[in-house]
Amino acid sequence: MARRTLIDFFADVFAGSREFVIYDDGYRAWTQRYAGVADASRRVADRLRETGLQPGDKVVIWSENRPDWIIALWGCLLEQVVVVPIDYRASADFMLRVADIVDARLIAVGETVPAFETTRPVWYLDAIDQRPAFSDPRPTTHDPRTTNDEPR
Fold first, then answer.
1. How many CA atoms lie within 13 A of 38 on its CB side?
2. What pLDDT tens digit does each residue of the chain (152 aa) get?
3. Within its chain, how far is the Cα of 62 from the centroid?
4. How many CA atoms lie within 13 A of 150 on its CB side?
5. How far is residue 64 from each of residues 19, 37, 94, 111, measured CA to CA in Å?
6. What is the β-pairing status of strands 29-33 and 19-24?
7. For 27-54, what is the HEC assignment?
8. Diameter of the chain by CA atoms?
């Protein structure tokens, strides 16, 4: 099949069970396979749709490099949601200004970004393909020193 779009690429390449990425979190190496990344990306796409995001809506991803970043990206692409990536070394103030400018519907964050407050929903990349891994009611305080098991 000719690959004309990224979605064509996704359907073609991510059907296999080969190793996609090996991620070392400092404690152990984790292997992600193409099929597993595809399944997780589809779950993210489902969550985006269930949350009410529409094609053309924007999601800010502010995170260090990690496999969950890729899963969030593909989930957004599957739902035609625009990804607005922010370098994890950027300040919280910068990220929030960008989120305001693009009118982001939500912010997805990694583990190493600094704390911030926002009225936008925040999804945590380490649990992005699970329900419910996002915080809302508003306002949201993101504090990387808490875990996903603690109230935000």
1. 17
2. 677 777 777 777 777 777 777 777 788 777 777 788 888 899 999 999 999 999 999 999 999 988 889 999 999 999 999 999 999 999 999 999 999 999 999 999 998 899 899 999 999 988 876 644 333 333 455 665 454 433 33
3. 8
4. 8
5. 21, 18, 16, 8
6. antiparallel
7. CCEEEEEHHHHHHHHHHHHHHHHHHCCC
8. 47
β-sheet bridge partners, residue 109:
62, 124
User: For residues 21 and 29, what is the distance between their CA atoms, to the nearest angstrom?
Assistant: 10
Secondary structure of 136-148 as H, E, C letters: CCCCEEECCCCCC
Rounded CA separation 45/145 (Å): 27
Other beta carbons less than 10 A from residue 66's beta carbon? 19
- Amino acid 128 reads I
